[in-house]
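As agreed, record minuted below.
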Amino acid sequence: MRSPVPQILQLAYAELLQRTSDADFNQQFPPNETGTFISKRIKDRTYWYRQVRDKDGARKQIYVGPETDELLTRIANHKQRRDDLAERKNLVSTLLRSGYFVKPTDAVAQIMMALADAGFFRLRGVLVGTIAYQTYGAMLGVRLPIQSFATNDLDIAQDAAISLALKDEHLNLLDVLRRVDPKARANPHRASKTATTTYTAAGIQVDVLTTNRGPNTDTPQLLPALGTHATALRHLDHLIYQPVPAVLLYDAGIRVTVPDPARYAIHKLIVAQGRHTGSGKVVKDLIQAEALVDAILPDRNGSLLTAWNEAYERGPKWRKELFDSLASLGFAVRDRLLQRIGAPRALVPGAALHFEDIRPRYDLERASVVFTARDQDGNPIFCVISRETLDDRYGADKFTQAQRVELFHKNRSEFEAMLRHKYLKEPLSSPEPTLFLGTLEFESFRAKLEPSAKRKRRST
């Protein structure tokens, strides 16, 4: 399923991300304007501001962001950067032409440029939803499935606590949208006559979201830093925690901030279970989650494990939603994820192993009895019982090949019980659809299964 792009395109994207981030910083804080960067220590963390004087000569501080190594480098080199518009356009063109990545529509791009220019991302706003997902292909160096890109909405978010903390500086979202479309409008909220959480501009619906760490509520939440209200959603705090920079591939590139792709994947596993059954959004959620898990596991699986564990620790409801969605993923991606998180298949609803119509044979190359079982979806699971297991546990060291196959038939129920136990209840040693039963495993599984067998005999 995973379709990596050539490394040269991955390097081109990394170069574009660096250049667009530098250009965005210079646009927000022009090098030719007078001013100084200052830092403040707030609750054990350092934040940076640009101190300037307004037209009346009064000092004014503009929020820059939390201190990072990248930000410190950008501040140190602030006066030295040159305009590289042509180079950035060439990089975007190369990625679109050779990487077959997704380009946003003109309307979406114009809205995102207006938000970026107004300081939305500097004020720690985050682009979420399918438009954010469209940035992950170039970021991860893979081609994502095209059927997961369709959308008519643009979703943006900001943490409610951050918005309150930035109350000394703000923008007005409707004014920003009217720079793109003078007819942009605020749409009435069903639960409030004075609050707006959804806007329409250039034919695009813009939904504003925020975090909700309490009970579910329909009451719009004020985001003073954005000059708007927002819909408060559960799970959003997990999604937008520690977001990452990305580039929308349009014109010279639009620098945006999006959720970490691992968190996006886990988020989609969770929210898919809250949709109405049969909804097209459920299908898209699961396609996006599966594609990202498949892309992340080879190179960034540490971030996926962190995102999974944080969601898993939120409680039994989150755990149920995660494993319910795993049941809908392709078995190859699902098993690779189960192996990474160290979870057995038995936690996935409906997981099963079937042995109907077994036709075993003796494989000389493997020196084993082999046959094929099926999982709950009918996918083949290759089963291997080693010769050593038959020799050591059944004294078959002098048996012919045919006798070893016959030995399997005579003890079929015991072998099936052990293979089923390994498939469902043991942590995955490999995501490959193969079950190998060796002599050491045989004794281990027999010890685990015998007590239940004895209990069953006593009850009858």
User: Anything to note?
Assistant: The CA atoms of residues 324 and 349 lie 6 Å apart. The first helix runs from residue 7 to 28. The chain has a mean pLDDT of 90. The radius of gyration is 28 Å.
